[in-house]
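Assemble and predict.
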Amino acid sequence: MIGQQIASSIERRSGVSLWRQIADQILHSIAIGDFAENAALPPEIALAERYGVNRHTVRSAIAALVQDGVLRAEQGRGTFVLSRKRLSYPIGARTRFSEGLQGQATERRSVLLESAVEPASRRVAEGLGLAKGSNVIRLETRGEADGQPVSRASGWFDAKRFEGIEAAIAETGSVTASLQRFGISDYLRQSTVLSARHADAADLADLDLQSGAIVLVTVAVNVTPDGQPIQFAETRFPAERVELKLSAR
Amino acid sequence: MIGQQIASSIERRSGVSLWRQIADQILHSIAIGDFAENAALPPEIALAERYGVNRHTVRSAIAALVQDGVLRAEQGRGTFVLSRKRLSYPIGARTRFSEGLQGQATERRSVLLESAVEPASRRVAEGLGLAKGSNVIRLETRGEADGQPVSRASGWFDAKRFEGIEAAIAETGSVTASLQRFGISDYLRQSTVLSARHADAADLADLDLQSGAIVLVTVAVNVTPDGQPIQFAETRFPAERVELKLSAR
DNA sequence: TATAATTGTCTACATCATTATACAAATTCG
DNA sequence: CGAATTTGTATAATGATGTAGACAATTATA
């Protein structure tokens, strides 16, 4: 489980198949540096012994990771680690999507998937300090780094205050730039709540994930410097590709 | 998936069984307030229809949550939500375990499970700024709130600098108090990296989780105010019981 | 070139997960 | 009370997951 220590064991009858648990652990081992890039994984028989399962079960796990582009298997040679460590996504009071990934990815962009005006749910209304049922603009966006999806966000704005912001965002491709048109030159992350869960079908599709994947979820409220709520947002990050780095202050 | 919206769908052949996916989603619905405490869940048949599965599959999901103490099923009446929202664990530069959960739990404590002196893995050595293989003290602890496990931490200290700290911690039950004996009156969280994965067998046992559960993982380096590394720690939180709240500053 | 090590494929079987029906038991309500 | 609603139990069938063993194909190496 940790560093050089013995591989952790595996749970049966858990609702999570053994091959997926093993795939999770291999992924984790890679992420913490137990296997370097281009290094060979232990042979299937050794892995099977270590985890106490049949060789075919290990093969299923490896097949999933090969499908995922994490490993490459070569007959007669071995199985090799392809993918680098996870992207480290900085998160702090002033995090903007376009910043922060510098040096880790050469090309970054945010894609607007959908926008709609609708009555606020209780949760959104509370976050924005509006009456429940007030109209809000909902934006669904996907963040990409080097062509690979790394985030999937649902954001809500007060429809009255920010009428037409979806057009501005579609045009400029930037939330920050669009907010300037509404007189907001700066904003802060007021609060962030973090959780994790299995990705649902929609996020699996949008983030190009294999089924059963885990997403990290942040729920944040962005405010003006004087504390007025601007945006309520829920963002899902694929846990296998992204880690969140809390900035030291 | 979000607020009042339609229930998200379910993935087959994912390595995660349908009943577990449904249990995850019900838990999430409770956490975001779709079902209040003591409220009745929709009847099994309605849930089965909503998720597009057989009633028995829904029953498996409910059985797992009943086992977990989240729901209570009553024949002829319905199935009811027992548990409150997740514990919200504040996390910031100065977070101490004993602080922060005030008002959410009446009784909080930290239990030392194991301590050992061992050579540092590469990961730990880098975190503490030591040579790889230097001796470090490893402490395994569990945090509890109202008798329920809410965290499971592995922490490492430089064995030379903090010789005997495990005895002090066993005695006082407090990392903060023990550090004072070594002349450390204050320390800060320098960096925190966040990820998520399926709990391994050891954490399932220590955290009293059902198999297949997800853990939030923080990896942090604590330093003195002048930047000297003191402790390297990996903490696992059960995602179904805990969310992490990043403090706004 | 032989041999060992490793991944790829195949078959057979056991166990778990899911569906499909049917009916029993408890509760609520007209 | 009697009907409707809801959870509990039972049984059978099917598909997905995991185990077991055998052997082929490819690569590295003595």
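Chain B is about 25% helix and 35% strand.
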